[in-house]
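re: ur question from earlier - yeah i can do the single chain one, its not a big deal. heres the input i used so u can compare w yours
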Amino acid sequence: MAENINQAQTIEYQWAYSIMDSSRVSTFLISMLLIVYGSFRSLNMEQEARDRANGSTNCLLNPSQTSQTENNVQTLDTMQALCLPLGASISLLVMFFFFDSMQMLFAICTAIIATVALAFLLLPMCQYIIRPCSDGNKMSFGMCGRFTAAELFSFSLSVFIVCIWILTGHWLLMDAMGMGLCVAFIAFVRLPSLKVSTLLLTGLLIYDVFWVFFSSYIFSANVMVKVATRPADNPVGLVARKFHLSGVVKEAPKLSLPGKLVFPSIHNSGHFSMLGLGDIVMPGLLLCFVLRYDAYKKAQGFAGSRLTYFHCSLLGYFLGLLTATVSSEVFKAAQPALLYLVPFTLLPLLTMAYLKGDLRRMWSEPFKSLTSSKHFQDV
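and the output i got, formated as tokens:
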């Protein structure tokens, strides 16, 4: 009798044990580290750009010059924020209906983009390795541009990793490419205000909920899950079949495209925890925005509390991810992670901004000079 009770209790609390699985813990840690690293990388890029523009002056005191000094950075406006969920939906449908006929194109484009993103991710490590034996000068490659030795080393290493991924299809290499895409997107795409952030995340929440929960009623399949888990034919295998080299070249494995991060369980063989890159990148853009705002207020001389907006949003992201994980274990079904991540990151931020009196400024013109308002407060 006691044994039956223990078994029943074990089954009842199975979801709690699943959350502590190594795959789940890895998902939590890696996703948060990517957001933190990408946000600080973006802030550092902004500081370097303003330093180049303003000489030795404090780079955070002149945010209006950002667009002039950072040509590689894309700042989303209101219309782009509203259109992004629509564009994502069209892309999802294209991959759902035409994946078989376009999978070679998808695989090649993904490999090219991931190579550049992974090179960006590896660049600081390569700079640290190359620094003792390089003067940092750029070498000219004609129309391709000028590059430092560290940039060439990081790109070469990235090409090598992507080539090994194509040959082996290993999940760890796919994760490395996905991490590069996350960091690059957070670093090079910026949200200008809390208004744009709210519109973007709300639209993506609706997009995520619709394609996970309701797409099966229209398309007789869960479009989001099917696209995320569908493997592509390996370009090496296709080339081998075209030139009748199948007997010479070893059969290349199918490729799971890096639109997600997967982490295997140590205790449960064959079990993987999966998190879409959008569930990292989109909340990450919001956290990157509030980190820039925290740094800007500090540079303006406003004393801040220990709990910054960035800390508040990062804690909210952790709680949202935890809630999404519990829901997936309880309901035993795929969950739209943004359904939990958006409210848990956005609502505490809006509440904190309202209580601190920053909501109106953050909503429309967060980086407008605060010097005059500070002067009136002091008087």
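The chain has a mean pLDDT of 83. not sure if urs matches, ping me
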